[in-house]
Task: inverse folding
């Protein structure tokens, strides 16, 4: 029986780190890794949506993971998202991730063509076979992938002994309850419902805004473990307000988050890669306001 307790807790989704020319910066990857581990998070989810994976080459994604692992090895639990829109590249990333010693790999279903469930299962199992000694996490994000996980598909995937669970980024909390009932370890995906997801049985959360305010999400998680739900709800409300504010600018939310990090004295990890829209001059006031509000909320709740 596997000990899956290491997957409990808060996993920031790792951000893409670029230099001034827009190339992946190994040093900035290492700086962000050190920064987040220093905040006390359980682990990192590398190479997913927040990492702008669909805009990076296979070699760039390998470079990112290599530099994360150079800092994080034996210090944090690392889940590497390895899916590409073809099996061969996904297998290459999976094998590379296993060679680096990650704790788990993860994959969305193939996007664009809507494949039948048996084809999606083959895709995931083929990826898993390329990393035969590594746990596998299904990434369910139907609003972006265009394919939704079903109980039947999950049961089929759980026949693979490496498949341990689901990063669930669908909005219905019922999905977390359903996947948990099937025997899967479930991570809550939508940051706006971390509290609800944990109460419904998620073992932890993987989130795109965690890196901007890890202290708040860590405290929320601790309060839920202590069954102090009313206090946890106050933090969830504060996080939601901040998420909405970070999404209110003209630039992409991740461009906003990267500026918020700089305003907080965190690492400079560059901008976002086109076609994601860069931060605009009028967005700077929003970023400054978010950073200040995060500081106040951390003082208030922690």
Result:
């Amino acid at each position: 029986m596997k000990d899956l307790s290491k997957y409990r807790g808060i996993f920031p989704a790792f951000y893409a780190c670029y230099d001034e020319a827009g190339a992946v910066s190994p040093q900035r990857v290492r700086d962000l890794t050190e920064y987040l581990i220093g905040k006390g998070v359980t682990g990192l989810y590398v190479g997913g949506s927040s990492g702008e994976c669909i805009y990076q080459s296979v070699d760039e994604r390998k470079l990112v993971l290599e530099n994360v692992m150079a800092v994080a090895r034996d210090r944090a639990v690392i889940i590497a998202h390895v899916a590409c829109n073809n099996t061969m590249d996904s297998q290459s990333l999976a094998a590379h991730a296993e060679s680096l010693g990650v704790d788990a790999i993860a994959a969305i279903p193939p996007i664009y063509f809507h494949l039948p469930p048996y084809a999606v299962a083959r895709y995931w199992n083929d990826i898993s076979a390329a990393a035969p000694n590594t746990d596998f996490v299904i990434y369910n994000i139907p609003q972006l992938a265009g394919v939704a996980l079903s109980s039947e598909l999950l049961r089929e995937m759980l026949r693979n002994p490496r498949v341990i669970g689901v990063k669930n980024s669908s909005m219905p909390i019922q999905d977390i309850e359903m996947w948990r009932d099937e025997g899967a370890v479930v991570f809550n995906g939508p940051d706006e419902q971390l509290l609800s997801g944990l109460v419904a049985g998620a073992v932890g959360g993987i989130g795109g805004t965690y890196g901007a305010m890890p202290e708040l999400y860590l405290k929320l998680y601790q309060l839920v473990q202590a069954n102090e739900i009313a206090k946890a709800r106050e933090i969830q409300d504060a996080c939601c307000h901040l998420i909405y504010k970070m999404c209110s600018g003209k630039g992409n939310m991740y461009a906003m988050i990267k500026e918020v990090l700089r305003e907080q004295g965190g690492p400079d990890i560059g901008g976002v890669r086109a076609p994601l829209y860069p931060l605009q001059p009028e967005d700077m006031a929003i970023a400054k306001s978010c950073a200040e509000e995060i500081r106040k909320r951390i003082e208030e709740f922690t």
Summary: The radius of gyration is 18 Å.
